[in-house]
Amino acid sequence: MGGRIRRLLDYVGFTQTQGTPHEHPPAGSIPLGIPEEVSQVVVPETVAPAVAEHVAREADLNVAEELQARARVSQHDSEASSVGTAILGAGPAGLAAAYVLSRDREPATVFEADGTVGGIAKTIEFNGYRFDLGGHRFFTKLEPIRELWRDVLGSDFVTRPRLSRIYYRGKFFAYPITAKDVIGRLGIWESGLCALSYLWASRRRGKDVDTFEEWVTNRFGRRLYDAFFRSYTQKVWGIPGSEIRSLWAAQRIKNFSLGKAILTILGIRRQQVTTLIEEFEYPRLGPGQMWEAFAARVEERGIPVRLGNRCTKITHQNGHVQSITVRSNGDVDEWPVDSVISSLALSDLVQSLEPPAPLEIQQAAKTLRYRDFVLVALMTTEEEPFPDNWIYLHDPGTRAGRVQNYGAWSHDMVQPGTTCLGVEYFCFEGDEIWNMPADDIINLAKNELATIGLLDPHKVIDGVKVLVPKAYPMYDASYEAAVATIRAYLEGFDNLHEYHEEGEMVGSVLSEDFVSFGVSSAPDPA
Prior knowledge:
Elements: H1 2-12, E1 40-41, H2 61-71, E2 85-88, H3 92-103, E3 108-112, E4 123-126, E5 129-132, H4 143-153, E6 157-161, E7 164-168, E8 171-175, H5 179-201, H6 212-220, H7 222-228, H8 230-237, H9 246-252, H10 258-266, E9 279-283, H11 287-300, E10 305-307, E11 310-317, E12 320-328, E13 331-336, E14 339-342, H12 346-352, E15 353-354, H13 359-367, E16 370-380, E17 390-393, E18 402-405, H14 406-409, E19 419-427, H15 432-435, H16 438-451, E20 460-473, H17 479-490, E21 496-500, E22 504-506
Parallel strand pairs: 2-3, 2-14, 3-10, 7-17, 11-15, 14-21
Antiparallel strand pairs: 1-20, 4-5, 6-9, 7-8, 11-12, 12-13, 16-19, 16-20, 17-18, 18-19, 21-22
Helix pairs in contact: 3-11, 5-6, 5-10, 6-7, 6-9, 12-13, 13-17
């Protein structure tokens, strides 16, 4: 079974395609794995309606009945039955794996700790409004993937115009930036100094660097780094760029960066920036609509998607996973498996192993750090407080890092005559922002947007706070060594396959097009 799963995953192919407001679609790396529990809504949340009308035409009922019989494990016959492949997590990557397994008539079951599919790319429904955990646009250069998206959602997969800006030191700058904005922001004198700084940095270009700050500075100069990267990087990650590894910059920036756009305007670079898109495709009711439809389709084909089922233990022997233990509503059940595909956070995966991983592996897992964030959704009677899909808040005087206008993403996600804004605060679990009472952080978000002219606080009619733990792994000084240590250990398993941003894919080699199903939010506009 292990070899068959490896071949399957080699074939699945989803590109790590830009699915969110980054500016380097498919060149940039997108978080592939979704933590099993990705959010906690401070007020009751309803599950978004399933989209079932697109799934029936491909369902083979005979195959579905056969797979359901093979995948079902009862308490009375758990020792004799296997779920086949246990897929841990119903985010985009997990559902994509389930989709391919269902197409190839392989038995499997998806276990999701949350009450909603989609992982960090789900859509939350609250009092008649729908909103993302950060905003997720769909973009791919792979036509088969685009056709699959369109097939799954049909006319509900719509094309939307893209507009975004940067707010910095009291001014809004178009993003991608324009010559007018650069001159207004930097001035002719400062623009010349940036050009000289860029030329001076060229002496060190090509040399090995260890940190994000060194990586950017060596390529674009100190003055451009200070102007456009330093403050926002500190806000997003909670640590200075000198403590972030260069690996993150190499993965995130790649063929596009704000610095390159500026240099083009200054006349230093003549190359056309080609990774900026002016429109994108998007589910009419938000990205969760796509994953709800995928879940419905794989269930029609016989692969159950079990929500509210948290994996607490992965039992193994001699490098082979034998079973998983899941908890649901206080009940604990053990499910025999043929193999496991996991999108758990790498630290959680290691902690779930039974018997425990060697001490050095556990220690490596404990050194992995994650950046969390809080989303504050504000409902306002201003139908269009600003026209952008999203705005980056670079200004160090604003605690929020980014704001989404969900009505600009899709009018059908909001109530007529109103819109919903998503204000994002990057933080660490347990800190002041994370623990701030819902009413207080809603007021903070209203006041910050009012201060910079994006919102009339008196027209806000509702609000909700959403906690998103382990949203992004942190590429700090211990990151690379810890991941390498854990990866070497996990490669010793013959039927455990894990995938997400930290581990990419352990246990199989993915083709370049593995993640195109998955879109996920990330905070950087670099």
